[in-house]
Amino acid sequence: MGEPKEALEKFASAWDRAEVGPAAFFPSRGRVGLESLTADLGLRAESVSFLACGALRPALDRYFAGCRVHLTEGSWELGVCPYCGAPPGFGDLVETGQRRLACHVCGGGWVFPRLRCPFCGTQSSTDLARFEAEEREEGYFISACRQCKAYVKELDRRLRWNAGSALVEDWGSPHFDLVAVRDGYWRPIASLIHLARRA
Ligand SMILES: [Zn+2]
Ligand SMILES: [Zn+2]
Q1: Residue 170 pLDDT > 90, yes or no?
Q2: pTM of the model
Q3: CA atoms within a 13 Å half-sphere pointing along the CA-CB vector of 72
Q4: Tell me, what's the pLDDT at 193?
Q5: I need a labelling partner for 97 at 20 to 30 A (CA). Which of 130, 155, 193, 196 fits?
Q6: Within 89-190, where are the H helices?
Q7: SS3 of 63, please?
Q8: pLDDT, tens digit (0-9, with 9 covering 90-100), for 53-76
Q9: Which residues pair with 89 in a beta bridge?
Q10: How far, in Å, CA of 44 to CA of 145, rounded?
């Protein structure tokens, strides 16, 4: 994961002593995972969010399965997952033209306004930027925010009806992350590219 050996060893021994467990990776207000994972153990925030997705998703997906149907449209307006509280990992424009944000941590999804930043909530058109992919990758785009500098990759499924799941599409398009990072944007849920150690 590009972590220094020392941080991984600290984390492994804390895990073995049961000082940290799966609950340490739960999303909380404004972050994913406990602050101590970064502050005390030295794990990077990118690695913490990546571990959260890998470790928690199978269990949380099953845990929330029964209550997903109760989320009615318009009953949730925040930019974090209504089930687990994590920030979105990917966005889909579905057949109806609605924007559906996907949660990588628990596998949930929710409808969210297209012209609002899910991370800071701004609706100002001068803050919201959209970077489209080139012609042969039509349908893929990056929604970035000049206010909070966060971005989320999205896919217009009306143009790509046979695309994979949100997680597969996200991990399969690291070149878009490179573009966003190069332009100075960041994302709260790390993708594969963010795990590479920065030189
Ligand atoms: Zn979730
Ligand atoms: Zn924003």
Answers
A1: yes
A2: 0.91
A3: 1
A4: 81
A5: 193
A6: 166-171, 174-182
A7: helix
A8: 988 999 999 999 999 999 988 889
A9: none
A10: 23
Q: Could you report the per-residue pLDDT of 81-125, keeping only the tens digit for each?
A: 999 999 999 999 999 999 999 999 999 999 999 999 999 999 999
Closest ligand by atom to 187 CA: 2
CA 86 to ligand 1 centroid distance, Å: 5
Quote the tokens at residue 48. Answer: 């913490």
Query: Which residue ranges form the domains of the chain, and what is each CATH number?
Result: 5-65 (no CATH), 70-195 (3.90.1670.10)
> Both tokens of residue 11?
């984390």
Distance between CA atoms of residues 49 and 43, nearest Å? 10
Q: Ligand 1 centre from 110 Cα, in Å?
A: 10
Q: Which ligand is nearest to the CA of 127?
A: 2
Q: Ligand 1 centroid vs 177 CA: distance in angstroms?
A: 21
Are the CB atoms for 94 and 88 separated by under 8 Å?
no
Distance, CA 80 to ligand 1 centroid (Å)?
Answer: 8
Alpha helices (runs of H) in 1-129, residue ranges in sequence order: 5-16, 35-39, 45-64
- Ligand 1 centroid to Cα of residue 5, in Å, is 30
d(CA 86, CA 30): 9
Task: Tell me the residue type at 117.
Answer: C
